[in-house]
Design brief:
mainly beta; Porin; twelve-stranded antiparallel β-sheet
């Protein structure tokens, strides 16, 4: 045990050369697992089979809901070890069925031409209130969840454009959120990437809901993450504040799409994220 709740919850046990076992806390005090947690563990399972290369992208599909009462097996397929790039595929399995599959690509460190966009202006995170209660991150019955929904989470969140969760309003489908881990996680790039992968699934799909005045608990709304992608551009320290700037350019065919940019406090574009989710509304 590391005395860091996030790192302890992401820890894996090696069972065989390409097989790992993990556990996850429930999302609401029930049985559901937060999707970002499975992303973080699957990435660490892939990293366990890679040497001297850094993940630059991952693409994941949520196949089934995860059950926090059951251990998760991570089966790693060593798809390719090339001269510069390594590819891994990871299946997260419970009761013999996939709950998530993830592909990740790793690269030898290289120098090359550089450019990036300019970080948008934002108020300092210290000037914003800490989020102590907010949206659950997966479609489920939240009765009985109480204040534990957000307070138990190991990510410190500060909203620049907060939504009224008790009475959600129609808003522009865009927002910015400061986030960081509550407890330092050290310099290990694998843990840094896993922590950001974990956090990248928090508050993301709610951006698409804003255009319609929806929230996770809206009567008649069925919602769930379908797939998730992260591109890791350059080194960062997620123990410090990072600005997640998000927008949703479209909802259509009962699906919503959200994209985001992740900026370090000193203005570096460190990651990009994208997610598509189910947004099926049957009315009240």
């Amino acid at each position: 045990m590391s005395n860091n709740p996030l790192l302890d919850s992401l820890a894996l046990e090696r069972l065989d050369r390409n097989l790992y076992r993990g556990h996850a806390p429930s999302e609401f005090g029930g049985s559901r697992i937060f999707g970002g947690h499975i992303i973080g563990q699957a990435l660490l399972a892939a990293y366990a089979t890679v040497e001297n290369r850094i993940c630059h992208s991952l693409h994941a599909y949520f196949v089934r809901p995860g059950d926090a009462r059951i251990p998760i097996l991570y089966d790693v397929d060593r798809a390719r070890d090339g001269t510069s790039f390594t590819t891994r595929r990871v299946a997260a399995i419970q009761e013999g069925q996939q709950i998530l599959n993830l592909a990740a690509s790793f690269q030898v460190a290289e120098d090359g031409p550089e450019h990036q966009a300019v970080m948008p202006d934002a108020p300092d995170p210290e000037s914003l209130p800490e989020e102590t209660f907010g949206p659950p991150q997966r479609a489920t019955d939240i009765e009985g969840a109480g204040d534990s929904v957000i307070r138990r989470r190991p990510i410190d969140i500060r909203h620049i454009h907060p939504q009224n969760y008790e009475n959600p309003q129609k808003m522009a489908p865009a927002k910015a959120v400061w986030m960081r881990v509550r407890d330092p996680i050290g310099n290990d790039v694998r843990l840094q990437h896993a922590a950001l992968g974990f956090a990248s699934d928090m508050n993301l799909f709610e951006t698409a809901m804003r255009a319609h005045g929806f929230f996770w608990s809206t009567p008649g709304l069925q919602s769930a993450s379908l797939d998730h992608a992260v591109w890791l551009h350059q080194k960062f320290d997620f123990s410090d504040w990072h600005l997640f700037v998000q927008d949703s350019p479209i909802t259509h065919s009962a699906r919503g799409f959200v994209r985001g940019s992740v900026w370090s406090r000193d203005g570096k574009l460190v990651a990009s994220v994208a997610q598509e989710g189910l947004m099926r509304y049957r009315g009240k």
